[in-house]
Amino acid sequence: MKKQNYSELISLKKKVGLLGSVSELLGWDQEVNMPPKAAEIRAQEQGVVAELHHQLFIDPKIGKLIKNAKKEKLTKKELANLNEIEYDYKKAKKIPSDLVVAFAHTSAKALEVWKEAREKNDFNSFTPWLNKTVKLNKKYAKIINKKRDPFEVVFEDYEKGINVKEVDVLFNKFKEEIVPLIEKITSIKKIKNNLSKKKIPVDKQKEISLYVAKLIGYDFSKGRLDESTHPFTSCYGRITTRYNEGWISAILSTIHEAGHGMYEHNLPIKHYGTPLGQSRSLSIHESQSRYYENHIGRSKEFWKKILNKVKKTYDINISLDEMYKLINIVEPSFIRVEADELTYSLHIILRYELEKDLINNRIKINEIPKIWNAKMKKYLGIVPKSDSVGCLQDVHWAMGGLGYFPTYTLGSMIAAQLNYKMKSEIPNYNKKIEKGDFKEINLWLNKNIHSLGCQYSTQELIKKATGEKLNVKYYINYLTEKFTKLYNL
Amino acid sequence: MKKQNYSELISLKKKVGLLGSVSELLGWDQEVNMPPKAAEIRAQEQGVVAELHHQLFIDPKIGKLIKNAKKEKLTKKELANLNEIEYDYKKAKKIPSDLVVAFAHTSAKALEVWKEAREKNDFNSFTPWLNKTVKLNKKYAKIINKKRDPFEVVFEDYEKGINVKEVDVLFNKFKEEIVPLIEKITSIKKIKNNLSKKKIPVDKQKEISLYVAKLIGYDFSKGRLDESTHPFTSCYGRITTRYNEGWISAILSTIHEAGHGMYEHNLPIKHYGTPLGQSRSLSIHESQSRYYENHIGRSKEFWKKILNKVKKTYDINISLDEMYKLINIVEPSFIRVEADELTYSLHIILRYELEKDLINNRIKINEIPKIWNAKMKKYLGIVPKSDSVGCLQDVHWAMGGLGYFPTYTLGSMIAAQLNYKMKSEIPNYNKKIEKGDFKEINLWLNKNIHSLGCQYSTQELIKKATGEKLNVKYYINYLTEKFTKLYNL
User: Fold this and answer.
1) Could you give the angle at the alpha carbon of B101 between the alpha carbons of B96 and B106, nearest 5°?
2) Which member of B78, B84, B257, B355 is catalytic?
3) Does A421 lie in the same domain as A356?
């Protein structure tokens, strides 16, 4: 009775959260199951749910309850929940509905134009739509806070616990150290191995994907594994992978998504729908998938455990050392999603620098191809042979999302820092991975990340887990050590 | 502009309908895909969607728009739509929310108790909950219309286009003719064939299910076929079947559900969410599934088309005549869902008579087992060896649904009447089935049933399609002719 406003607020927010998860199911089903001619109804269903979700989200009742709940005697956790709810509510309240509509219409059209532009390698046809997208982002930033750097504002939609100045420092330091490392490696003769191109039947691949997901601790009583065009995690931790991009890619995608999925599964269900039951941020989410993908899925220890089963199931022959080299080949390439572990983050930094300059009017839309190619040359030593495999390759900007990219690399950085800490805290860490024993690793992540939801800010969460704020040295040291050894530098 | 109220009403109703179809997806996913530990969240999601659906359904705005739309110059079709909307709205408005809650709570608990009672063959433990259920149905009927026979009121929730007096006449006539026919058949030595018990691998069964669904015209660009514990159709005509009850049952279930699915697929999509875009009634829906299941799926012509493929795929050997006999064996049995085509409807009539007497206080709850068994003896010549396979076998009453059962048999009756009409209108009807050419049949059903949604009442629809109201003679004649020939009576 004492915290009546808080309780009422939470029960309202749970409804909003549940309606959000209904929308997730509509989306999941669309990607995984939906027959093509059901698309029209599905779009209408999504529209109705989105409208109701928005109405509930900005219901003035929530504003009143927030105000009154502040006067109640709340625990620290409850207060954290309240603050998160207030942040979301106040921001949502500022956004005029015509801007929401403009974003939806523009991104729908921009997506269409972008697809054709990429296909035809015609950046010019995309420029008016990218221009509209950037303008809408600027307008949005101004409405939210006209005094701040607009990139800071849009970036906060994806990661509000690390500020842009911090990101600049992290990314610059990373470039400084890793660009020379890549140069050194690319000057060496390349490892050639065509085994990764071998076609493996889907049912065999599925068998291995299920095996590795289960092995690392993904809980199939809460989630499931399906196939989709692009791997993703949604709907209370359901994961998808794809089998048509090669068997190594399929395994790594499964492990990556299982990392996301386990985070979702371990969020405290009693807080489902409220910030305490939600993932902290995109960077933290990505840290979970990258941790499993890179520190487990690309480690020699893990492959020591799974290689025999993979070899037998896929009828291939390769030694552990060769396999380890194969999944860790460094080779600068044009396409971000196909990049290796070492070069990947430079693809991200390039995009981050460009989108920041774009929204701040430091560069013009039509300069993008030139600048893109110059940065590719500078960071990776190669120049895309066309814009299709250059500045037109990603969907993010076409969808209206400026400021999303950096969360991928922030995730990798956090992952490396978590990995470093776990190594020091969990006895026989490598041995346990070799044995496929992930119990302690999962408990550690659950305790230090998953179970905490949005109780702490991103930086607080990292500090509580590892003893310090996000520090790029762990990522740099990990990469340097690993690839120096691998390439005998 | 002239019909502004009508237009606004329709757009509101579409929202309500779309939210209903969202709830269908939640349910479909639960049966087909959902991992067990996602159940808790799913129940909460369903709760939120149901609550919003109900709020929108009885929004006073709808009442006002109905009133104003009546003054607008509407077409006949629009008027039909308006009348259906008004009927639903007025009824929903009458139901107090505490009754809805009581129904939900009682059926949840009753379901649990029923499951255990059935397992332990303990009817007494179920009586208090069946009692509550019957009482709630009476209370509901009184609220809707205290002057009418309460069974008429609850029956209208499932079929409002055929009245109970008509059903009585149809069912009594049916009993009169068919009970003696069954007696005659059961006095003859039984056909024995163990081939139906052969275990066929699921992937082979799935192959045949996909084949027959496609053959009869089920559109996989709109729907899909999955596996579930109980076969059902939902979510814009998606169908399920089951493979663990024998290969014949799987094929017939698939055909049955495909009949439902094609109805859903052919409803006019531009009216989706409003009565003009909705199926007419449960009886009409069931007429579509029973038409395909009985008049196609159990016909010699159809098996002439598919038998070779089935034999090859399942590695079995059987002649067409033997196969036709096998799928049409008449054998009185205890379980409704396993009953053959001839005895099935007597299971239904038994239940119909019981539930009608129950709600009208003509019998007491504790008399059910006795009356059940006496009717089984009278109609089918057998007495269940326990209540588990007698009056405790079905979920319907436990779920609170009195008045649902008769729609199954009404569906079979309508199907026979449609079949008779099609035979006379479609040239070379039997030959076309033999060839697997369902184009004209599907066009006929589409034109006369599917595309009309709720434009006409059930009886009007039947009359428009066949030239007369529902007449049981077509069903009786069809069964008599078929089984007299089959059993050389």
Assistant:
1) 125
2) B257
3) yes
Instruction: With respect to residue A109, please indicate whether it lies within any of the assigned structural domains.
Output: no
In terms of domains, do B419 and B351 share one?
Answer: yes
Domain count, chain A: 2
Residue B108, CA distances (Å) to A317, B25, B102, B155 in order: 56, 21, 10, 21
> What is the C-alpha separation between B400 and A287, in angstroms, rounded?
49
Q: How do residues A236-292 score in pLDDT, each as one tens digit?
A: 999 999 999 999 999 999 999 999 999 999 999 999 999 999 999 999 999 999 999
Give the single-character DSSP code of B190.
P
Task: Judge contact between A377 and A383, C-beta under 8 A.
Answer: yes
> Structural domain of residue A90, as residue ranges?
1-94
ipTM above 0.90, yes or no: yes
* B453 contacts B276 by C-beta, under 8 angstroms: yes
Per-residue model confidence (pLDDT) at position B2? 76
| Structure confidence at residue A259 (pLDDT) | 98
Residues B61 and B186 in one domain: no
CB B239 within 8 A of CB B28: no
Could you tell me the two tokens for B176?
């009169």
- CB–CB contact B25 A25 (8 Å): yes
Asked if B78 and B86 touch (Cβ cutoff 8 Å), the reply is no
Q: Are A88 and A20 in contact (CB under 8 A)?
A: no
Give backbone dihedrals phi and psi of B304, rounded to 5 degrees, phi first: -60, -40
Q: Which residue has the tokens 């502004």?
A: B4
In 10 A of CB A61, how many CB atoms? 12
List the single residue in B with minimal CA-CA distance to A22.
Answer: B45
For residues B300 and B323, what is the distance between their CA atoms, to the nearest angstrom? 8
Residues A151, A264 within the same domain: yes
| Token code pair at residue B334 | 């205890």
Which residues have C-beta within 8 Å of that of residue A388, sequence separation ≥ 6? A118, A119, A121
Q: Is the pLDDT of residue A108 over 90?
A: no
Instruction: Please identify, among B94, B113, B135, the residue that sits at the C-terminal boundary of a domain.
Output: B94
> What does pLDDT average to in each consecutive run of 10 residues of chain B (489 residues)?
90 96 96 94 93 95 97 96 98 92 89 94 96 96 96 97 97 98 90 88 98 98 96 96 95 98 97 97 98 98 98 97 96 94 98 97 96 98 96 93 96 98 98 98 98 98 98 98 95
Between A473-486 and A341-359, two packed helices, what is the crossing angle to 10 degrees?
A: 140
CB contact under 8 A, B19 and A220: no
Beta strands in A184-229 (DSSP E): 225-227
Confidence band, pLDDT 50/70/90 cuts, at residue A97: confident
Q: What is the CATH number of the domain that holds B315?
A: 1.10.1370.30
H or E stretch at A475: helix A473-486
pLDDT of residue A1: 55
pLDDT of residue B362: 97
Restricting to A residues 45-64, those with a Cβ less than 8 Å away from any Cβ of B are: 45, 47-49, 52
Is A86 in the same domain as A153?
Answer: no
Residues A231 and A368 in one domain: yes
pLDDT > 90? residue A193? no
pLDDT score recorded for residue B400: 87
DSSP H helical ranges for B187-223: 202-216
Q: Which of A16, A18, A51 to probe by mutation at the B interface, max B CB count within 10 Å?
A: A18
Q: Between residues 200 and 259 of chain B, which touch chain A (CB distance below 8 Å)? A: 219-224, 236, 238
Compute the distance between CA of residue A285 and CA of residue A267 in angstroms, rounded to an integer. 12
Same domain, A320 and A433: yes
- In the structure, what pLDDT confidence band is assigned to residue A2 with cuts at 50, 70 and 90? confident
- CA A294 to each of CA A250, A259, A301, A327, B392: distance values in angstroms, whole numbers, following the listed order: 14, 11, 12, 10, 56
SS3 A225: strand
Structure tokens at B8: 């606004």
